[in-house]
Design brief:
5 strands, globular
């Protein structure tokens, strides 16, 4: 096997982003989160600020439908839809597919699990923790009150769920979308990394 990709979806405050970074460092491979936005901006020539604005956010709407081409059909620069949210997403999807083909890596968020669902050598992980634990983590990390932290968690998780549903037609927190679901509160970050690494060794013993 030439390359493998670990995708990590995560609840806000669960530590999924940190776990992804720790895993990449342990395995000696690249880790992509915000870097995906920069790469998509460079590939498309579209201002990175527009990618930042649309990143993992999608307003619920009764109008319009994403055609789910996941980067296979990009809108040309002479179109008024070139900087639309859907075209921005398609550039990110294109970058995600190219990274998977090129190298072993860890990709956090951005529907990468679904974008790569039909590709070989992909391990899809979901990281979660109890609401109480997430509130404590976010409050400590951002110096917020518990009520403020809870509002922040609800807002971000709701946005991620809407974004995922719009672009995939699936529910973001449905365990069936993933190969491995990890409770970071119960396991701790190091053991989460241990389990993902062990899972990879079972799947790909030749690596």
């Amino acid at each position: 096997m030439a390359h493998f990709t670990v995708t990590i979806a995560r609840g806000f405050g669960s530590g999924g982003r940190t776990i992804g970074k720790m895993l990449a460092q342990r395995l000696g491979i690249e880790w992509y989160d915000q870097d995906l936005i920069k790469l998509a901006s460079e590939e498309s020539g579209i201002n990175i600020a527009l990618f930042d604005k649309a990143d993992e956010h999608k307003k619920a709407t009764l109008f319009g439908k994403y055609d789910r081409n996941f980067g296979d059909k990009l809108i040309s620069p002479d179109s008024g839809e070139f900087t639309s949210d859907d075209n921005l997403f398609n550039y990110q999807a294109k970058v995600i597919k190219e990274l998977h083909e090129k190298e072993s890596c860890v990709i956090v968020g951005r529907c990468a699990d679904y974008i790569l669902r039909d590709e070989p050598n992909v391990l899809r992980v979901f990281v979660y923790a109890s609401k109480a634990q997430c509130i404590k983590t976010v409050a400590d990390l951002y110096n917020l009150s518990e009520k403020e932290a809870e509002r922040q968690i609800d807002r971000i998780d709701r946005a991620r769920s809407t974004y995922y549903r719009y672009y995939t037609g699936q529910e973001w927190d449905n365990a069936r979308n993933y190969d491995l679901c990890l409770n970071s509160e119960l396991l701790g970050f190091d053991r989460c990394v241990d389990l993902i690494e062990h899972y990879l060794k079972v799947l790909y013993p030749e690596q």
